[in-house]
Amino acid sequence: MDRRQLILVIQVVLGVLALGFAFLVSSGHLQVWHLFVFTFISGAGWTMNNPVRQSLVPDTVPREDLMNAVALNSAAFQLFRIIGVVLGGWLIAFTGPSTNFMIQGITYMFMAALILQIHVPKRDYFESKKESLLENFKGGVNYVRSQEVTLALILLGMVPALFVMPFINALLPVFNDEVLGNGPEGFGLLMGMYAAGAMLGTFVLASLQNFQHKGKLLIGAAIASGITLVALAFTSWGPLSMFVLFLSGAAHMMYMATNNTLIQLTTPPEFRGRVLSLFFLDHALTPLGSLFAGFLAWQYGSPVAFVVGGTIASSMVIVMTFKFRALRETRA
């Protein structure tokens, strides 16, 4: 399909949905089932939006600047995630929740207007034989299975989704309360330092430009992400915990951006959308990782859970490094 047209339709649908929900909230007739429908459709839209948008990046950015582009995209995401939380809370407090959805809907429409101005090279719209959805899906899976590096990158993406991010998201509030003895302000500082580290990691990647040894960089960042999680378990002083989280955020985002870049560089255009869709399936594993993290914290405490999660993550990356030799030899 025409990816530019597809992403345009997605923005319009999400924009209309957000505007409709804003009017529903402001009308005072909101019911619980409305929330489920809105969340379900929004989730489906974003699930399609991410791989389509990412698959367009190599067709709109010079190949030698791809890592720079992916890193800057990640940095923008981290920056606006911080700003968005602050702004959203302020809007809810002073204007009510409907304003948030109204702004969201208007922003989607603004994005649609921007997409109309994007020029996508003709090569993106390759000719292919007509296949069913199932045949297309099988083709993507078979391609990943036949490419050692691509398979390794997708499998590697599942490691932090299971054993790093769920532990940070689910257990950091518990660790902040039980170990550090801080209140909400302390927790906010911890998350802020993690986000600041993530931004630094993406800026470092952006400055590397066309760094050749991307495979080694990916492996090093993935291992460091697990090690910093273990180190966090042995901190009991707030400033030291914030420093470790700063390093953890930098390592994790360097890993994520490098992994994304490598998949984009090594996948031909006709398979890029399907491969990225499989890559983004790691998001579905995060709730499973949260269950595991919660069980460990319930039985043994959050520090032990951090040690277990970080150790498993680093160990799995090391095992996969030896299993997939082509991964550590991957160059730009």
What would you say this structure looks like, in words?
- This protein is an all-alpha fold.
- It has two domains: 3-65 and 96-124, no CATH class; 133-328, MFS general substrate transporter like domains (Growth Hormone, Chain: A).
- The chain is 82% helix and 0% strand.
- Helix 9 packs antiparallel against helix 10 (238-266) and helix 9 runs antiparallel to helix 13 (302-323).
- The chain is globular, with a radius of gyration of 21 Å.
- The mean pLDDT is 83.
Q: Can I get a quick summary?
A:
The protein is mainly α and 332 residues long.
List the helices and strands and how they pair.
Blueprint: H1 3-27, H2 32-60, H3 66-95, H4 98-115, H5 133-146, H6 148-163, H7 165-178, H8 184-208, H9 214-233, H10 238-266, H11 269-279, H12 286-300, H13 302-323, H14 325-328
Number of domains: 2
The geometry reads as: globular
Class by SSE composition: mainly alpha
Secondary structure tally, helices: 14
CATH fold-level topology of the largest domain: Growth Hormone, Chain: A
Proportion in helices: over 70%
Distance between the termini: 28 Å
Q: Let me know the largest β-sheet.
A: none
**Could you state the CATH homologous superfamily of the largest domain?**
MFS general substrate transporter like domains
Mean pLDDT equals 83
Low-pLDDT ranges: none
Strand content: under 5%
For the record, the CATH class of the largest domain is Mainly Alpha
Q: Radius of gyration, rounded?
A: 21 Å
Question: What's the number of extended β-strand segments?
Answer: 0
SSE string, helices as H and strands as E: HHHHHHHHHHHHHH
Corresponding CATH architecture of the largest domain = Up-down Bundle
